[in-house]
Design brief:
By secondary structure, the chain is of the alpha/beta class. The chain has three helices and eight strands; from the N terminus they run βαβββαββββα. The model is unreliable at about 155-170 (pLDDT under 50). Keywords: Membrane, Transmembrane, Transmembrane helix.
């Protein structure tokens, strides 16, 4: 289980899929994909801001990564995966409820030390919703968790997925 971990680099994905021969369960909770970095700090070779080392003016970096890319890699490389949950804490009205699926909060930006949603991350969400949802459905089919009744709600709420039948799952 990964909790409150941002996904922004190929090394993050490589680390997860590197467990492909043994990983049977994967829960990602509050793990947004970072699509933009805006900072005036120097970045190391892996694009992590180096605390205390200013680069002068703020610099904007855009990262080409999407949930569709990540989920497709899971399908291709996590051959033994049988249980996957991708969930995010709802942010409206100080809710403490988690929602599973491809919700708007799945894309964020790193802006001067904070992980936030901005106009660009909202655009990425809107532009990638169809491909991300398709990849999510394919991943759920891959794990055997897909149920056709999941389509009864809005596409970005394809959620509440993965819990049904967990007691019946066998290793």
């Amino acid at each position: 289980m990964l909790h409150n971990t941002t996904l922004a680099r190929a090394t993050h994905l490589t680390w997860i899929v590197g467990h492909g021969s043994t990983l049977r369960t994967l829960h990602l909770t509050n793990c947004p994909v970072i699509v933009e970095i805006y900072t005036n700090m120097e970045l190391d070779k892996d694009w992590f801001p180096i605390y205390g080392r200013s680069a002068g003016e703020a610099i904007l970096y855009r990262i080409i990564i999407s949930w569709a890319i990540i989920l497709t890699a899971f399908i291709s490389n996590l051959t033994h995966l049988r249980n996957v949950q991708i969930s995010f804490l709802r942010t409206e009205a100080n809710s403490e409820e988690f929602t599973q699926g491809m919700i708007a909060g799945r894309y964020k930006v790193y802006e001067r030390g904070q992980i936030v949603t901005n106009a660009y991350s909202k655009t990425v969400y809107e532009d990638s919703l169809a491909k991300d949802t398709e990849a999510y459905i394919m991943l759920l089919k891959h794990t055997g968790q897909w149920r056709s009744e999941f389509l009864d709600g809005p596409v970005d709420k394809i959620g509440k997925i993965g819990n049904e039948g967990q007691d019946d799952m066998r290793d």
